[in-house]
């Protein structure tokens, strides 16, 4: 079996599969997909809510059906190795992997990293208590119910109010389980307001503006304590607690590599083409902007796959990179670097996230020159697109800053 490839893709979720599809369509034949799970398809494999497919196939599809569909478009043309973990990456497209074959070193002319995201678990949220059974994330819940056919509890409480929090109500309902309550620190749901109506229709009580203080139970979860929005201390009996959302990228591979990254987050530095500090390496999907919908990541994978194919056919022109600076309102921008060269497009789109609620203008400037201005209503964890930012006049002395007004 070959150890030399045109492109190696790390991660066979929506973005990775999409990149593989485009590479094949563009005539790049030696493509290898590496996936640490036993099956390719990513997180959608264990999703049963019909929120996939509208942007890719123009009809609603359940996650596992959509995952099979996007996998079917590449599995006959690309080599896919599941149960394979990437140990490290090195200059020259050198990738070390571990599998039941042992350790191997593979080499790609280009490497695309599409390792996705994970939810923030209980310990990272500084919730007190011992570690009883029954504390898990939404992703673990989906695997328990849909893949293993197990019920981790029958009286669960959900922590968080993102879209994944409300899809957890759906997952529990499919298993014949009713959530007792949904608790979140924000005074309004992070997801759309209609999601809160759905929760109430399902008989799930919302505790917004509440702060979890303690998980009780030694062998098994027995109750949860929280401070309500009015300041009162409350306790709710339950047998399981599901932490949802607050997604963060899978950056362990980046942190231990030669690639430049943001010290505070571990997110790699990458430009509007997905290129990293080592131009043989690209990044794509939710690891660059935790966390967008599966369809959105798939479309992004198609775009980056095409760019990687083009990079194999021609030598790129000389370029310079300009970091994207952010006001304190903003948490991330994707890309976090703007690459300028004679071949670069005149306009780019920034995908940003905020740390707190903001309603007003967002301005992108190069010094005193305004590149973009738009009105936005922003909430944490929401996808905010700053479209058609004019970069035609940028120079090596430019300083790009995103400002909230």
From TrEMBL:
<dbReference type="GO" id="GO:0004148">
    <property type="term" value="F:dihydrolipoyl dehydrogenase (NADH) activity"/>
</dbReference>
<dbReference type="InterPro" id="IPR036188">
    <property type="entry name" value="FAD/NAD-bd_sf"/>
</dbReference>
<dbReference type="InterPro" id="IPR023753">
    <property type="entry name" value="FAD/NAD-binding_dom"/>
</dbReference>
<dbReference type="Pfam" id="PF07992">
    <property type="entry name" value="Pyr_redox_2"/>
</dbReference>
<keyword id="KW-0560">Oxidoreductase</keyword>
<feature type="domain" description="FAD/NAD(P)-binding">
    <location>
        <begin position="5"/>
        <end position="288"/>
    </location>
</feature>
<dbReference type="InterPro" id="IPR051691">
    <property type="entry name" value="Metab_Enz_Cyan_OpOx_G3PDH"/>
</dbReference>
<protein>
    <submittedName>
        <fullName>Dihydrolipoyl dehydrogenase</fullName>
        <ecNumber>1.8.1.4</ecNumber>
    </submittedName>
</protein>
